[in-house]
């Protein structure tokens, strides 16, 4: 008898479990719209040309060794990552008020930031949007923070519940942490307008709420790296403090390389350097120091003007393909006369469409059409192609009629 015989089987992860179910399905028409990973028109994963080029350069450089990185990661990568999210002319960077540490993609950056806050910040409550990426509440709870939600999405309008958001942040205790999706909110695809961001900023600063930005889709939402960083830059421009978790999974296609960064913008350079010293105490017992390969790829691309430009072109092509999938799906539903208003498909931003389909309709589409997606009705537009749009439109049409 095993000493572990009492261990009960855990449920599959709600997002990654979709792929597990998909892999088991022998149907030739099966379609995986669960996980947020970019696919080409041919349905294949994409390694960017500029990434291949950077890897080749790294391999050819015989002076490169496999030594450990410092606890905070690759210095050059950290500097370039801060510049990418805050802007080349950011006063916060110039004044050395930003500390950036390399972490294990977006997830690891969120986790390290949250652990630091649980140890050193006076307010242990974090407000996350309702709904949000399913990993958020787990990351923050395990880090020792207490998780509350603020209203975000209005199912009736399939848009932002702006009044609810302001009310909930307005009644949050002073100093509370607030998780904000920098752009391309997951799963809803609904972002505040710039005017709304400005109102959120004013409210948060007036109540000393601490912004923690999750930036997993910079450049992926609009195709423009600066446009997708505007929310973050508004909060940095006012001189206040904030946290930012960055991921290169989507925008550089480095999913499995686990490349990301946590930046903390502080009031002074002295505070920033003390914060960094404590971030090292969080990282050292957690994973000691981050991996070298992915960060070297990113640094190689970001520091060379030509490679950077090449990246922005490839990034825009990915974003544009997703945007064109929105239009094609919308047109296909209209052509079928599918009941309902589907304009949210073209209005929403980023990788996902929050369709409004309920869990029974999703189960029906999986059972009858072999289409795999999360039960909240979220579909990854990046997993669609011109060839598969008709099949998805048929399934949605059948599910709602
Ligand atoms: N935050 C959000 C909102 C996401 O959608 C994701 C990925 O799906 C992440 C963070 C982190 O992803 P990763 O850890 O792969 O960078």
From TrEMBL:
Swiss-Prot/TrEMBL GO biological process terms: amino acid metabolic process
Organism this protein belongs to: Theobroma cacao
Similarity comment: family membership: Belongs to the class-I pyridoxal-phosphate-dependent aminotransferase family.
EC number(s) reported in the record: 2.6.1.1
Keywords, comma-separated and alphabetical: Aminotransferase, Pyridoxal phosphate, Transferase
An annotated GO cellular component: mitochondrion
Catalytic activity: L-aspartate + 2-oxoglutarate = oxaloacetate + L-glutamate
Domain Aminotransferase class I/classII large: 30-396
More info: In eukaryotes there are cytoplasmic, mitochondrial and chloroplastic isozymes.
EC class name: transferase
One Pfam entry name: Aminotran_1_2
Designated name of the protein: Aspartate aminotransferase
Cofactor(s), names only, from the UniProt record: pyridoxal 5'-phosphate
Entry-linked InterPro entries: Aminotransferase_I/II_large, Asp_trans, NHTrfase_class1_PyrdxlP-BS, PyrdxlP-dep_Trfase, PyrdxlP-dep_Trfase_major, PyrdxlP-dep_Trfase_small
Assembly and oligomerization: Homodimer.
MF term (GO), any: pyridoxal phosphate binding
Annotated NCBIfam families: PRK09257.1
């Amino acid at each position: 008898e095993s000493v572990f015989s009492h261990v009960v089987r855990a449920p599959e992860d709600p997002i990654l479990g979709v792929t597990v179910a998909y892999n088991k399905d022998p149907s030739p028409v099966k379609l995986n719209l669960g996980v947020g990973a970019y696919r080409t028109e041919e349905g294949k994963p994409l390694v960017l040309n500029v990434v291949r080029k950077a890897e080749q350069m790294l391999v050819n450089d015989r002076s490169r060794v496999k030594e450990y990185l410092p606890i905070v990661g690759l210095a050059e990568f950290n500097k370039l990552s801060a510049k990418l999210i805050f802007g080349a002319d950011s006063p916060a960077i110039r004044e050395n008020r930003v500390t950036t540490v390399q972490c294990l993609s977006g997830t690891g950056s969120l986790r390290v930031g949250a652990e630091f806050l649980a140890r050193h910040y006076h307010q242990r409550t974090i407000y996350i949007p309702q709904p949000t990426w399913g990993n958020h509440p787990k990351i923050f709870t395990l880090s020792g923070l207490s998780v509350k939600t603020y209203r975000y999405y209005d199912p009736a309008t399939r848009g932002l519940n702006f009044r609810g958001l302001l009310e909930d942040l307005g009644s949050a205790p002073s100093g509370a942490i607030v998780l904000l999706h920098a752009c391309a909110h997951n799963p809803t695809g609904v972002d505040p307008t710039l005017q709304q961001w400005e109102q959120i900023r004013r409210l948060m600063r007036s109540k000393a709420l601490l912004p923690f930005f999750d930036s997993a889709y910079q450049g992926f939402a609009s195709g423009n790296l600066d446009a997708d960083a505007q929310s973050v830059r508004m909060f940095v421009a006012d001189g206040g403090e904030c946290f930012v978790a960055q991921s290169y999974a989507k925008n550089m296609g480095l999913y499995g390389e686990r490349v990301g960064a946590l930046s903390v913008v502080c009031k002074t350079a002295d505070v920033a350097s003390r914060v960094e010293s404590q971030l090292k105490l969080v990282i050292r017992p957690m994973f000691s120091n981050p991996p070298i390969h992915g960060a070297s790829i990113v640094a190689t691309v970001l520091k060379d003007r030509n490679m950077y430009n090449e990246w922005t072109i490839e990034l825009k092509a990915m974003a544009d393909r997703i945007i064109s999938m929105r239009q094609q799906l919308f047109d296909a539903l209209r052509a079928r006369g599918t009941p309902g208003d589907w304009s949210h498909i073209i209005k929403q931003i980023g990788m996902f469409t929050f369709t409004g389909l309920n869990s029974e309709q999703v189960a029906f589409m999986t059972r009858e059409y072999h289409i795999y997606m999360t039960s909240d009705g979220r579909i990854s537009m990046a997993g669609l192609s011109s060839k598969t749009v008709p099949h998805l439109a048929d399934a949605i049409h059948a599910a709602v009629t």
